[in-house]
Each structure stands twice: as C-alpha cells, then as structure tokens.
Specification:
Elements (H helix, E strand, L loop, with lengths): L2 E5 L4 H9 L6 E6 L10 E5 L8 H5 L4 E4 L9 H22 L3 E7 L23 H20 L2 E7 L1 E2 L6 H6 E2 L1 H13 L5 E6 L11 H5 L12 H7 L16 H4 L15
Parallel strand pairs: 1-2, 1-4, 2-3, 4-5, 5-6, 6-9, 7-8
Helix pairs in contact: 1-6, 3-4
The structure holds D-galactaro-1,5-lactone.
Length: 273
C-alpha cells in the first residue's frame, strides 16, 4: 500500500493516527474541512467537505486505501448527524468506488451497540442497539460498508471504536479505552491484511474490564500492546459514585444513552437479543 487518504486528519483521532502512521506509507494524504498548515515529508493536504460530493474526487485519485475519520464524532441534532455521517459517509464510499479504491477503514463506534447491558460481552455479530442519532449513523456506515464489499468488492474494516485517548479517563473508559498505537495497529490491519472483505472489530486495547468479545480482531492478527487496567487505581480513586437512577451507568454507551431518555432505567433489559 503506497498512498493512503486520511479524512478528518485535523481531528482528534485523525491527528493521533497521523502521528502513529508517520513514514509507514509513501504518501499519507491528509484531508479535512479545516486547513492543516504543518504538512510534513511524506504527507500532502487536500481540503474537502465530505458532505459536498464534488470535493472528494480529486482527493481519491491514485489512492490505495482510505482511513475515513471525518464526520460527526459525538451526539448532535439530526441535521448535523445526517449531513456528516449519512450523506458524507455515502459520498465517501461512492467517491471511492468511482476512483477504484479497494480498501476502506471505517470508524464505527461503541455507540452502535450502546444499549447493550454492561453485564455481558458483545461480539461482532449482533443486532445493533444504537444509543442515539450518532449511534444510528455509525450503524448505517457499517451497512454501507457491507453493501460496497458485496456489490463492488471494496474491502472494509469497521472498527467499533471505544474511546481513543492517551489513557482511560474514567471508569467507563477502563472498559472501552484504546491507545493510539493499538488503534493504529487495527487501522493497519484494515488497510494491509490481504483477506479483508467486510469485517467488524472493536477498537479497544487489552482491557480486563472489556464489554466486548473481540475474537475477530485477534483472528486478523491484532495483538494490543496496552492495558487499561494499568491506570485503574488512579482512575477509580477519582471516580464519583454512579447515579443508578439513570440508564447510562448500566449500558455500554453511558451518558450517550441518558440523552433524551425518559422512564424506567431498566427498560433496555426487555430487548430480546
Ligand atoms: C465515541 O464514539 C466518540 O467519538 C468519542 O468522542 C467518545 O465520546 C466515545 O465514543 C466514548 O464512548 O467514550
């Protein structure tokens, strides 16, 4: 793989991956709606707005693989989520198809399955249980990835990212944290593994308190280097008691599930699957 397009390169995960992937590919083509002024050796910059299909073609030219980190990354009003993660995501896959790109790494999220209880491990083959509009949009992206794999032969690795950060920042993140180098390892598997058609993995480090069965990632060769548990004592010493009258502390998605929630906080337990 020579030329890799990184959309959302100015954002938090985009910047983390840019650091980790320095020098790995001949050209890391950075793309964002915001300008990037410190383009280094082995990098180039394309300004684009994923919601504007016309801006994507030039950035896709000659690209071997795409890491698609652009889009809405937290809960928002439907208009915003729709523009970025429905229209923008579809535009991205269409532009890749037209340009003949054969590999995409798609950042799904734990919020596509955010209403699963914390009491069990959730695997890759699951009914979606989004915890908001953002979660719905992440599930939609996985469906687009599946269609474009089967219909057009574009291989996608969908990474249901937990929380990418320097270290886990609270008790919930002890279960879903992923370090930058572990996330970069998964991204590289997504771009470089020869057998990717359509795969779903969880973007989490080697976390003892994980809520996910990440067997597919391990089958694809993932060997995480970092463990959230190393930070557990520090994190738990600062943690405030959880408000168990809410649904958030009972489910994977945490406060995302609390947004707009009304009524019985145990209702999610009635879900058949
Ligand atoms: C996500 O999907 C978000 O992109 C990130 O900002 C975090 O909020 C994360 O989930 C999380 O669940 O902690």
């Amino acid at each position: 793989m020579k030329t890799v397009l990184l959309t959302g390169a100015a954002g938090s995960i985009g910047s983390g991956l840019r650091r980790e992937l320095k020098g790995v590919y001949d050209e890391l083509r950075l793309a964002d709606i915001k300008a990037i002024n410190d383009v280094g050796p082995g990098e180039s910059f394309h300004r684009l707005d994923i919601a504007d299909a016309g801006t994507l073609g030039a950035a896709m030219k000659g690209v071997d693989g795409v890491i698609h980190m652009a889009g809405q990354s937290v809960e928002a009003d439907w208009e915003t989520v729709h523009r970025q993660n429905i229209v923008g995501l579809y535009n991205l896959y269409e532009a890749a198809r037209i340009a003949g790109v054969k590999r995409i790494v798609y950042p799904s999220s734990n919020h596509a399955v955010g209403f699963y209880p914390r009491s069990r491990r959730v695997g890759a083959v699951t009914v979606f249980r989004p915890d908001g509009r953002y979660g719905i949009s992440k599930a939609f992206g996985e469906l687009v990835a599946a269609l474009y794999a089967d219909k057009f032969g574009i291989g996608s690795l969908c990474i249901r990212i937990g929380n990418a950060n320097d270290k886990p920042i609270d008790k919930r993140r002890l279960s879903i944290w992923v370090s930058w180098r572990d996330l970069a390892q998964l991204v590289r598997i997504g771009l470089e593994h020869p057998a990717i058609h359509f795969e779903i993995v969880y973007g989490v480090s080697d976390n003892e308190r994980s809520w996910f069965d990440n067997a597919t990632a391990y089958q694809l060769g993932y060997r995480p280097q970092d463990r959230a548990e190393d930070y557990a004592a520090d994190v738990l010493a600062k943690e405030l008691p959880e408000d168990m009258t809410k649904v958030g502390p009972r489910v994977i998605g945490g406060s995302f599930a609390d947004d707009d929630y009304a009524g019985d906080p145990n209702r999610f337990e009635k879900f058949r699957y």
